[in-house]
Structure formats: structure tokens, C-alpha cells
Amino acid sequence: MLGSLFVVVLLLTLGHKLLVQIRTGYERRQRAVFLPKIQAYINGDNGRFATYIPGPLGAWDRRVVLWTLLEQIRYVRGRVQERISVAFEDLGFVEEERKKLAHKRWTQRVEGAEKLGRMMSRRPLPELTRLMQDPVPEVRIRAAKALGAIGGLEAVASLLGALRDTNRWSALRIGDILGNLGEAAVQPLIQEFPRLPPSARVPAIDILGRLRSHTAVPLLVTLLRDRDENARARAAHSIGVIGDPRGAPDLVAALTDAAWPVRAMAAKALGMVPGNAGITGLQVALADREFWVRSNAAEALRLKGEPGYKALKGLLDGPDTYAAQKAASMLQEAGVFDAYVTQLVDGTPRERLAARTLLGKLVTLQRTDLLTDVAARHADPRVRDAVAGLLQPATAARA
Amino acid sequence: MNWQLWVARAIEAFNGFVLAYFLALNISYILLFFVSLREVLRFLKHTFFSDYQQILRSDMTLPITLIVPAHNEQKTIVDTVRSLQMLNYSEFEIIVVNDGSKDETLARVLAAYDLRRVDRVYKRSLPTRTVRGLYASPLVPNLTVVDKEGGGKADALNCGINLSKYPLFCSMDADSVIEDDALLKAVKPFMEHPEETVAVGGIVRCANGCTITEGRVTRIALPRRFLPVFQVVEYLRAFLSGRLGWSALHGLLLISGAFGVYRKQAVVEVGGYDSSTDTEDLELVMALHQVNRSEGRRYRIVFVPDPVCWTEVPNTWRMLRRQRNRWHRGMLQSLSRHRKMLFNPRYGVIGMLVLPYFLVFETMGPFVETLGYISVPLAWALGLLNTQYLLLFFLMAVAFGVFLSVAAILLEEISYRRYPSWEDLWKLLLCGVLENFGFRQLLALFKIQAFWEFLRGLRRWGRLERVGFGKAPGEGRVSAEVRR
Questions:
Q1: Degrees (nearest 5) of the Cα angle B360, B365, B369?
Q2: What single DSSP character describes residue B95?
Q3: Is B59 within 8 Å of A210 when comparing Cβ atoms?
Q4: Does one domain contain both A344 and A330?
Q5: Does the residue A124 lie in any domain?
Q6: Chain A residues with CB inside 8 Å of B414's CB?
Q7: Which of A334, A355, A390 is the last residue of a domain?
Q8: Residue B170: enclosing H or E segment and its boundaries?
Q9: Do A369 and B400 touch (CB under 8 A)?
Q10: Contacts with A, B 23-42, CB within 8 Å
Q11: What pLDDT is stored for residue A23 in this prediction?
Q12: Domain containing residue A262: CATH number
């Protein structure tokens, strides 16, 4: 029995390999034959597909034509895309995939929906809409995706319905589909938002951010005061992703939220919002009792550029040790001290003094790793000496 | 009844036990194979139309920290970091942890990226050896290099976790090559089940024989020598028909240290990687099981067969022995440490199925197998067993092994077909047969030696003299540690 099992497995392995190689080779050859004809059809003004590639086609040839057309339709729009969709209909591919939508195996339904979405034919719209009631979430998502691709705005309601299947993967995909629909998808989503179940609200907030529409900002600002802390945190993040300065005052207010994830997200978002709004709030957030809030606030100030650096420098000799340490660390990583190090020897007397004062603050804070590195490795010996001189008190203290 | 009769009966009973043992082992392998086959087909159907580019272009994708522990990796570290920088992923940071290297690992990576020492404030969630310095550059904001006192891979990974700023981290080896889309594929389970997924493992494949250019696999081929090809077959069997099956049964016990993605919070909760065992990867997964099961949480530790990590496997018997010694010793240490889960229904499939399987077949297996190879032929030679029994024993011990190896090659062939040429397929099939005549038996002996070392409390890291990808022995990489 084992012997026959072994022989079966061996034959299956070899047979499969042989079949795959024969099929791949055949398809490669046939593709080379069909592609110019398919492109001639796509770019032609009239004539059915059969005038370019007369039928009937064998099963393997149909497969080659199907995948070649599916590949071509990905890159075209407008009339050319319509001609490819018509070819799918004429060749019976749309009908074949429509039948799969009623198949008892969900993987077949998924395949049907996916291919129909790519074929862009409007014929299966009723079946795809019905498929939004399928018991399998994956089928519903694929149907929503197909509807999004084919039906444009008609599919938005269905897509929002799919948001009820909440996990990050579904939300990401729905966000991607709605993102392709652009600004037009925002208003229906905003209108639908109050009716969404609690589990769908957070993904919807993420999607509003993904759509990057300023129209969504007022709703997101309202959500900064939501009862659910997760919703507040995601709303802050989405405002940041949209980058609308109108949201900045509310984000600053969110820096004092009771929940630290909200404060951390608000700090991160303020870094993404253009302009100088929120710098003072971020300075305060650097002294937050939660590490991640301080960390995000420092990163946000770094993203603000020169005004942010100025704020960070101002914190170096401030009363809060956490804030001073974090500011020193962020300024080092941003490379801000490099210019000051050079000014120690090459600057005007005023610049030298400013450089000595600022770098002296690092020594006082005992954040001397960068300076020690400069003192050891800088190309200019004068800079090395100057920095070593600055470091002397710290070295003496350590000794 | 005289003593000869007693001896004969004892030998007969032992041989009966050996036969029953092999029968049970093979049945479990075959069941696992069919579970894996189903899982591979299911996975292929699920992912056939998966557009991983959606993950890539979405800002809802979870960001990842890549932690690269490096110990004496001067020859590869710059290429490794360069290849990681080119990974297809939207938001990630790379933390290279120089774990007390004696060579120029640190100097080379600092010079390549013009990194300077910085004072970074970070949260020390896990205890580690002293950090000597942190290096970063405003020009490469997603790269941090940590220089620390040598403390082993576990300690280096813990240090990387402390410094990471993202919710997920990927542990890897400095000398492994991760495929461009591997992170996108590995992160998908975290997106599908964000609350439950705590760890995801990918498949590790043998890079010997492949051509690797600038940290990327550019041509896949089997090595010329038989020993690495035996390991290619063994890896296929272990990953495609072992781990995949266990993962489907919610009993995955090991995520390879060469490539695994974890939820940071979950790892910190169990105290991070444990430096006191020889296999920190196995120990971590067992600890994750223990904590989550004892707390009664819903959690997922899954194996995804598609994200690929390429790694060099030992080219010599001596290196192989050291590597397998360490792996087996580590397994025994972890089994012993988590013995309270054994046969404990509170730990579900882990306590009632997976750990007993490891205890019976992995721990006892080498002894039963080796003694069987001695006692059955001996008993036959002494006329205590008939030829039919002897043949039945070899059928169970060897022929089943051949069947399972070929079955694993079939799984590879119907799923990923990474070795496209007929020559490679023939070679795999040939080695699938040959590895059952000597290779497997030697591995059993290595495990017995490891058991002895475990009893004596020995701990040591095997050191592999790396040949380097596509190079002859003596060239290329040297002295990189063997890591699973």
C-alpha cells in the first residue's frame, strides 16, 4: 500500500511538473501570437473581437486570451477600456464568471467577483449587488471591490455596507477602493457615519483620513470629543493625515485628553499639519508623563523645521528634565548641533558665543555622546579641540 | 523458563514497541501532511487575487521595526542594511544591534551611512546588557545602530525591542535575505485579526547554491553538494508539511529566528527573549503560548508559507552537528521549562497534543530510532525475528521517510515551484530518497549527543564557518553564528 502511495505521489509530482511546463510553454507561445491581434482590436475603431481572433478558441487559448485582456484592462480607461469589456462579454467570459457568483463554494464566488470587477462590464451589477448579502465576509469585500470598480458612485453604499465586516484588512481594502473614487466618496461616507455600527466607526475614520478630503475635517474635529477613546485617537490621526491647519487648535486641545493614546496621536498629527500652529502645545506635551506622548511631540517639533528646532532649543534649560532630555536627543538626531559645532571655531564672536552657550547646555544635561564623538572624530582639529574644551567639566565630573 | 527465553522475549517486546512507535510516528506525519496539503491549497486560493500593493500604498498599514542582531558580521552587514532599505513596505525602521562584535561590523556600518553618536531617550521595557552607544543620521532617519556589550542574540533582540517605536517588530538574522514582499505578506494576518495575532512566521529556504547580488536573491538553484540539498528537502518537509500543519491546528510551536514578525506589546509582556536558553525563538513562542493560554485569551500564532527568507545552511557535517546540537538542546530546555503545560487541558491543543508530540517523538524519537536500528537487525541476525518483520521495520523506519520527503516535494511543486528546472526536481527527489539512508540516522545521533549535553547542563553556540553565497569554501563569510 505504501509502495502504491509512493508511486502515486511521485507520479503526481512529475506529472504536475510536466503539465505546468507544457502549459506554460504553450501559453507563452500563444500569447506572443495573440497579443498583437488583441492590441489591434483594442486600438481599432470598430469590429468585434472575432474579426481579429476568429473562434472557436480551445480551453487553453481562451485562458491565454482572458489573462491577456485582464492584463491590458488594468492600464487603460475610457473607450479602450470599454472595448475590452465588450470583448469579455462577446467571448462569454462575463457569463462564465457570473455563473460562479452563485456557486456553492465561496472561493468560486470570490474568484467570480474579482474577475468581474476587473472586466468592468456593467452586466453583472445586479448579481454583484446581491452578493453584498453573502454570508462570507471575504465574498462581500470582493463584491464591494468589483462594484467600486464597475459602478462608480453607485457602489458607495455597498462599500459602506462592507465596512460592517470590520478588520483592518477589510478597512484598508475598502479605503483603497473609495480612495480611487476620490472626493465624491467623502460626502456619502460622512452622511452614513452616524448610522454605522460602533465596530465600523474606527475603520470609517481611518478611511476618511485615507481619502485626504478637507470636507471630512469638521466631522473628525467633532470626533475628537467622542466617548470612545479609540475613535478620538484615530480622528486625531486622520486630521494629521489630511493635514488641514483648521484642525490644529482642536488637536492642541486633545493634547490634554485623559487617555494617553489620544494625546500621543494628537502630538503626532500636529507634526503632520503644516504651519506653526501647535508648537507651544507640543512644547508642553514634551513634559507629558507618558513616554510615547513625549516621543511623538519631539518628533512633531522636528517635523516643523526651524520653528520646531527653536522650540526644542528653548526647552534645553527648562525646568522639566524629561522635556530637556527629549529635546536634546531630538536636536541631536535632526543634526541641528552640527552647524553650531562648526561655528565654535569659524563663526563670528557672537555666533561663537551662541554656539558655546547652546552646546554648553548639552554638557549640563550630560547628553554628551554626540560631542564626545565630534571631539574624537571630527575632521577639523580645531573643532575637536574646541569641543574637548567644552567637555572638560563633564569629563572632570565623571572622573 | 530459562534466561535465554526471557532475553528473547524482552528483545521481541522491545522490537514490537519500536515498530508500534514508528507506526504512530508515521501516522502522525501523514495526518500532518494532509492537514498541510489542505492548508496550502486553501492559502493559495485565498491569496490568488491578493493585492499586496494595497498594503504597500495604504497609510493604515501597521508600521514595523526590523531588528538585525549582528555579531561579527563585517562582511555582510552593509549589504544587509542596503537590501533592507529597499524592502517593499510603507513605513519601517531598521535597528542594527551590534552585539559585542570583535571585528569591524560597527565601523563599517557607521562609515557606510555616515552615522554619528546620539543620545536617544528610550523606554527600557526589557533588561539588557549595557548599551555603549546609539548611532543615527538625519540623512537616513529610519536607521539606528546600537552598540552594546555582547549578550547573545536574545539580548540583542531585547535591546532592539526597547529602542523600537512601532507596534510590530521583525526579528531576523544579519546574514539572511528577506524577499522584497515578505513584510507585506507577513503583516497581513496582523491586519486581518489585529487584536488576536501575536506572531507570524514565514518560510525559511536554503540559500546555498543561489546567486545573491547586493543582498537580493537573483537566481534560485540547488547547491551542488548533497549535504545542503538534504537540508533543502528537510526544510521543505519541516516548513511545508510540518509547521503549516501545526499552524492550522493552532499549535505552532516555533517561529524561525531568521524571520518572524511579532506584536511588541505581547513580547514585552512575556519578558522578551530569554537569554538563558539555546533557542530563544522557540522559547519565546512557548512563553507566548503559556501566558496567553493561562490568561484565557484568544490569540493567534500563525505560519504563512509565502513570505520567504533565504539563509545559508551548514555545508559540512561538523557544522551541521553543532547546529543541530544547539537546536535540540534548546528544545529540551524549553520543554523542561514549560513542562507544566504538558498534558494540562488548560493549555488546550498545546498542552494536550503539541507538547506531548514533541516529548514523545522529538525527545524520545532519536533513542527509539537508534536502538531500533541496532536491535532489529541484531535480533534478525540471531534468528529471533523473521525476515518479514525486518522488512516491516525498514518499511516503517525508512520507506515512510522516503514517502514523506517526496510528499513534501509534491507540496512545493504544486504550490510555490521555487526550483523551476527539471534538474533541480530530479535532484530533490533523489535526495529525498537518499537522505533516509544515513542523513536522518546521523541527525538522530546528534540529538542523542544534545540530550546528553542537556543533562550535563552544557550551553554553547555552534559557530558556522560561512562559505558565502555562490562561493567556494574558504572564500566569503566566516564565523557567523548558526541561527535557526
A1: 145
A2: E
A3: yes
A4: no
A5: no
A6: 16
A7: A334
A8: strand B168-172
A9: no
A10: none
A11: 92
A12: 1.25.10.10
Overall domain count for chain A = 2
- Comparing CA positions, the residue from A341, A351, A287, A276 lying closest to residue A309 is A276
Domain boundary among A334, A356, A384: A334
Whether a cis peptide bond, with omega within 30° of 0, leads into A218 is no
Q: What is the full DSSP assignment across A22-35?
A: HHHHHHHHHHHHHH
Which residue of chain B has the CA closest to A167?
B192
The residue range of the domain holding A348 is 337-399
Spatial contact of B172 and B259, defined as CB atoms under 8 Å apart? yes
The DSSP code sequence of B329-375 is: HHHHHHHHHTGGGTT-GGGHHIIIIIHHHIIIIIISHHHHHHHHHHH
Return the SS3 of B255: coil
Structural domains counted in chain B: 1
User: pTM of this prediction?
Assistant: 0.84
Domain membership of residue B218 as a residue range: 1-49+195-484
Cell of B417: 515551484
My answer on whether A256 and A358 are in the same domain is no
Residue A155 domain-assigned (yes or no): no
pLDDT in tens, B329-365: 999 999 999 999 999 999 999 999 999 999 999 999 9
Cell output for B155: 539580548
ipTM exceeding the 0.85 mark: no
- The answer to the question of residue A352 being in a domain is yes
Residue identified by cell 536627543 is A329
* Nearest CB to A372 within list B55, B59, B117: B117
| Under-50 pLDDT residues of chain B | 469-484
* Joined grid coordinates for residue B217: 536573491
User: What residues contact B399, with CB distance under 8 A and at least 6 apart?
Assistant: A2, A3, A6, B436
Burial per residue of B232-266, b for 16 or more beta-carbon CB atoms within 10 angstroms, e otherwise: bbbbbbbbbbbbbbbbbbbbbbbbbbbbbbbbbeb
Q: Which residue of A has its CA nearest to B167?
A: A292
B65 lies in some domain: no
